[in-house]
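I hope you will forgive my troubling you with a question about protein structure. The matter concerns a single protein, recorded as an amino acid sequence and a row of backbone structure tokens. Please examine both parts with care and let me know of anything in them that strikes you as inconsistent. Here, with my thanks, is the record as I have it:
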Amino acid sequence: MINLFQPQVGAEELDAVAGVFHDRRLGNGRRTRAFEEAFAEHLGIPADHVVFTSSGTTALHLAVETLDLREGDEVVLPSIVLPATAEAVAGRGGRPVFCDVDRRSLNPSLEDIEAVLTERTRAVLLLHYGGRTGDVVRIAARCRELGVLLIEDGACSVASSVGGVPAGTFGDLAVWSFDPGRVIVTGDGGMVYAKDPERAARTRLLAQRGLVRATSFGHAAVDSAAGRTPPPEYGRGIVGNDLTAAIGQVQLRRLPEMVERRTRIAERYDRELAGTEGLLTPPPLPEGQETTHCLYWVQLDPAIKDKVVGDLLAEEIDTTSHYAPLHRFGPPHGGEHAAPRLPACDWAVDRTVRLPLHPGLSDEDVAAVIGSLRRAVRTRLAEAGSEEGLTVKDTP
């Protein structure tokens, strides 16, 4: 099977985990701090402003919690996100308000966001789809003008940038995911960044069960304040640990080579799929933008999309259609607060298919994906055009 995604882990990661076992300190300790420091250096931000968490989802919930949403506060986000994104807002008492996206890049523009802003908008939660930063520069500037907080969901954009400025540093908060489908993989894990020093300190406090220190690992055994000072507010145990952090440090060191391979694969897809009848490749990157190439997608006519996906699976090529947009659903994902119509989002979701993209793909694998996809599209288009009463509508 040619997998859609495939973590790139090996001897270096095993050695790093063995070192944690040797130390017999598996909790949140010095390796966690080292991973946070290395990640912060990678982005050019202060190390004490980032917190390694147990997952990308917990990082997202933690970031939203620091907004202190009140009843009626709205958070604008694209409808093309994982359900957990809207749940993070609704779960803290906010109202998710979904905006449309560019139908080719699947990223919202400033105009898409402005179309649903109201006087109740407290924040914008911006996903960098597939690793592309989209309109983040203009969106961040507008949020600053309005006094609206901006959270960047950088799950796919750990090495993306605009004009040399890293994704995740444009807004007030940012989160990343290190689950098995991402570029950096730690088994599970996430990172949250808060630009404001006070918000950053509170983020760490909330992640560490409301305690100033997560564990005694790497600290003095005696703390004169222990047992006498109550936690300042409720928290939860969602910090990462030294096992996953040790893997993360290795993955971060390997990031340039992994992104380089992803880029070469994406460029080959672009080059060899370009001009295929009935198929659209992603639009060119705007000047000055760099992407991590976490995802690669094509867009097909809805009349043939599912059949093409089935054809590829029969040849042991794993793909996936895009998950359904949240504005099509009701509670608990906040669908009752959606805009009346999101036509570009609907158009994109009905046509988008993700292809395998990870450094473990061989040149032969990439050639197999390209060849199989082109044959399947050609065959299904011919069938659709020959069936009585059936025409291929809205062909990209």
Q: What stands out?
A: The chain has two domains: 11-252, 256-386. The radius of gyration is 22 Å. The mean pLDDT is 91.
